[in-house]
Specification:
The chain is α/β, with parallel strands linked by helices and about 260 residues long. The protein has nine helices and six strands, in the order βαβαββαβαβααααα. The chain folds into two domains: about 180 residues, Zn-dependent exopeptidases (Aminopeptidase), CATH 3.40.630.40; about 60 residues, PGBD-like superfamily/PGBD (Muramoyl-pentapeptide Carboxypeptidase, domain 1, Orthogonal Bundle). Strand 4, helix 3 and strand 5 form a beta-alpha-beta unit. Bound molecules: zinc ion.
């Protein structure tokens, strides 16, 4: 079981933590956290612990947050924030993912996976991976990152922050990053599972051939699952930690989707 601690920064009524137009930082953080949680529930063997007050009423002390994550023995911790520069509207903006100075390689790997995915999801500037001595990163005993998913006092970023779909995408991007980093396997719904196999034909096979080509293979898009497709499927499975059975089932489909998502970055 993989344990993931999720922290939406601050509380609803924390003084100062708001956009010049009055929106509270926690509201943004919470929406992203909810999307992270909802996406992570689609993976197998995941346990989640939320470190902030999910109602926003209490701004849970930072020490309480890290103590809980440590006592629970979380495998990883993510803290979700949104930035402010001077608290007045300005042209600055962008996404940053923080690790502790001198952080473990695992923390840095996780940050490196998550940052570009969040940039892509929000469509904002990439300010890169940064280090800072922050409580949530310093006092947690597991790999930990803190994401600043845009500036609340940026005239460009606020447009994305007020877009519910973008915040949802940001959360899904963070979850995708966690899934890649932790090698999570999607849950399989057998009632709706479609499995493509040798001998199948049709538009769906054409789409699969195009997708494999986007991943670097060179298949003729003839909508037919022949021996060359079979060889590609097995090669793909072999290089992605999947059972090499030549069937394109839900796990192989999910891995193709994940690879395509990563490639878009
Ligand atoms: Zn914050």
């Amino acid at each position: 079981m993989i344990k993931i601690a999720i922290d939406a920064g601050h509380g609803l009524n924390t003084p100062g933590k708001r956009a010049p137009s009055g929106e509270r930082e926690w509201m943004f953080n919470n929406k992203v956290a909810l999307a992270v949680i909802s996406r992570l529930h689609t993976f197998q063997n995941v346990q989640l612990l939320r470190l902030d007050d999910p109602t926003g009423t209490v701004d849970v002390e930072l020490k309480t947050r890290t103590n809980r994550a440590n006592a629970w023995r979380a495998d990883v911790l993510i803290s979700i924030h949104h930035n402010a520069y001077l608290g007045v509207w300005g042209p600055h903006g962008g996404i940053e993912t923080y690790t502790l100075p001198g952080a473990s390689q695992q923390s840095r790997d996780l940050a490196a996976v998550v940052q570009p995915l969040v940039v892509k999801a929000m469509g904002l500037c990439d300010r890169g991976n940064k280090t800072l001595n922050l409580h949530m990163l310093r006092e947690s005993k597991m790999p930990a990152i803190l994401i600043e998913g845009g500036f609340m006092d940026s005239t460009t970023d606020i447009v994305a922050l007020l877009n519910e779909q973008k915040l949802k995408k940001q959360g899904e991007a963070i979850a995708t990053g966690l899934a890649v980093y932790l090698n999570l396997k999607p849950k399989v719904d057998v009632s709706t599972a479609v499995i493509y196999k040798y001998g199948d034909t049709g538009p769906a096979i054409g789409t699969l051939q195009k997708n494999f080509n986007r991943l670097g293979y060179k298949l003729v898009v003839d909508q037919s699952f022949g021996p060359l497709v079979l060889a590609v499927v097995k090669d793909f499975q072999k290089h992605n930690g999947l059972a090499v059975d030549g069937y394109i089932g839900p796990l192989t489909q999910a891995k193709i989707k994940e690879k395509l998502e990563l490639q878009k970055v």
